[in-house]
Amino acid sequence: MAMSKKQLREWPWNGRPSKRHVWFVASQNVDACRRCGTRYYRPGGGSGAVYCFPRPEWLRDNPNDDRKEG
Asked: Are 34 and 52 in contact (CB under 8 A)?
């Protein structure tokens, strides 16, 4: 399937983190996602993980979550 340039600029093909992440500051230089648990080191450059898969603990504590991956 050929993709248009517009589609390639949209998530997930643009390589940016999912909007489903629930970021918080875990320590001075580290951010983490409450939903999936992924972490990233800010001074190292880049950004968080592209996909966000909800953990069982998150789903238990947040019954309103739609459970979608993304």
From this structure: no
pLDDT tens digits, 27-63: 999 999 999 999 988 888 777 889 999 999 999 999 9
Compute the distance between CA of residue 10 and CA of residue 32 in angstroms, rounded to an integer.
23
Give the whole-angstrom CA distance, residue 52 versus residue 56: 13
pTM of the model: 0.79
Element (H, E) at 57: helix 56-61
Q: Which of 26, 16, 14, 8 is nearest to 52 (CA)?
A: 16
